[in-house]
Amino acid sequence: MAVRVLPVEGIPEVRPGDDLAALVAEAADVRADDIVVVTHKIVSKAEGRLVDLRTVEPSALAKAFAARYRKDPRQIEVVLRESRRIVRMDRGLIISETHHGFVCANAGVDASNVPGDEVVCLLPVDPDASSARLRERLAQRAGSDLAVIVSDSFGRPWRDGITNVAIGVAGMRPLVDYRGETDPHGFPLEASVLAVADELAAAAELVMGKTAGIPIAIVRGYPYERAAGTGRALIMPPERDLFR
Amino acid sequence: MAVRVLPVEGIPEVRPGDDLAALVAEAADVRADDIVVVTHKIVSKAEGRLVDLRTVEPSALAKAFAARYRKDPRQIEVVLRESRRIVRMDRGLIISETHHGFVCANAGVDASNVPGDEVVCLLPVDPDASSARLRERLAQRAGSDLAVIVSDSFGRPWRDGITNVAIGVAGMRPLVDYRGETDPHGFPLEASVLAVADELAAAAELVMGKTAGIPIAIVRGYPYERAAGTGRALIMPPERDLFR
Predict the structure, then answer these.
(1) What global pTM score does this model have?
(2) How many CA atoms lie within 13 A of B12 on its CB side?
């Protein structure tokens, strides 16, 4: 059974207060059991998670780091404010843990795909709540059940390049646990909890493209397990994280 | 333009010496510009990368670690032999850097989906060479160009669950570099080198399933950039790895 990944084209520039569910429903033929993957940027924009840098007073730390690497001290300040722990701060880049618990570059603060010279975009305050709201409204309109993933592109240790991951999830189980099941030879499967929501987010990225301005994709035909689901569940508890 | 992910069903149990290209060509209608994603396990099996644990003499380190966590000391010994550096060794699990440079659990040594009580499967010696050989033979048979990815499921720091990644690549550029390009607002894109080969491997996993025994998927409709390509390019050079 094939899985299809469909780009949703024709989404206009999203502004604070816009009704994202209405925009998606107008642009796409959303069907039962679809997984609607939405880049966080348009969710953040609709929720007004934009900061005008002209209103930001940088701290001494932000000024010092920005001066050393020729960065905008106000943007560095925003990154520090969006962080609850700094993992690494070097070469102009900050790897930090956000208030949600995501470990990523620059706390997800990003100036690309944002209109205006002096505006940066933050991650949604609660990507799971954003996903759940969008899922509920899309399901109402479609008259059927579906799942929603809010995605962002994160770097990762050990491997080059960024990949799309799920930062918010609603309507599906984000992890599929094969432990206790057996392979076709009857042997128990090891280390087999799959982060399927991250794999779905990655698949969606393939039709989005950074420059094409396609912020939404639909994954159709993947038999996900229905559940409330969260993106939070994809954050590894530190005490279990052997890679940390 | 949609991307399709198609499972390749009917691949028999692969044995050392089997002609993988012939098995794929018989089971699937491989077309021009397809990306054929193959789990490393059947590549390893065809290449005879299987170890009979009855032939393995465990070291003192392997014995001590195995005794503490009730593991098979011979399997621990194989993991140590497949490693060039131990990153972490705790709770019965070894996170190490393989001789290829991959950082993963148990050096990719795995007893699941392998027939026989006493046999474990290693990663291919050179997954890029395996990918290139398979690509060449499939392209000859199909009479057209295509790409091959050899995949494995790796855990990762910070996030729970494993995801499929590309350990071998042939026929496509594994990283797509958007730096220097601009977004629809004309602003330069930041931090935008996408690990598309990993995203393709992740997408392929969606139709494979650990228990279903589907070791191959075809991704169709993704406009990859043709190049020799390697999976090695996805290994982050330590000096650039801020997450490390």
Answers:
(1) 0.95
(2) 10
Taking only the tens place, the pLDDT of each residue in A177-194 is 887 776 666 666 665 899
User: Which residues make beta-bridge pairs with A3?
Assistant: B5
Query: How close B232 comes to chain A (CA, Å)?
Result: 10
Do A114 and B185 lie within an 8 Å CB cutoff?
yes
C-alpha B156/C-alpha B80 separation (Å) is 20
* B151-177: pLDDT as tens digits: 999 999 999 999 999 999 999 999 998
Looking at this predicted complex, what is its ipTM?
0.95
Chain B interface, best mutation among A1, A3, A239, by max B CB count within 10 A: A3
Domains of chain A plus CATH, in order, are 4-49+126-235 (3.30.1330.100), 50-121 (3.90.1660.10)
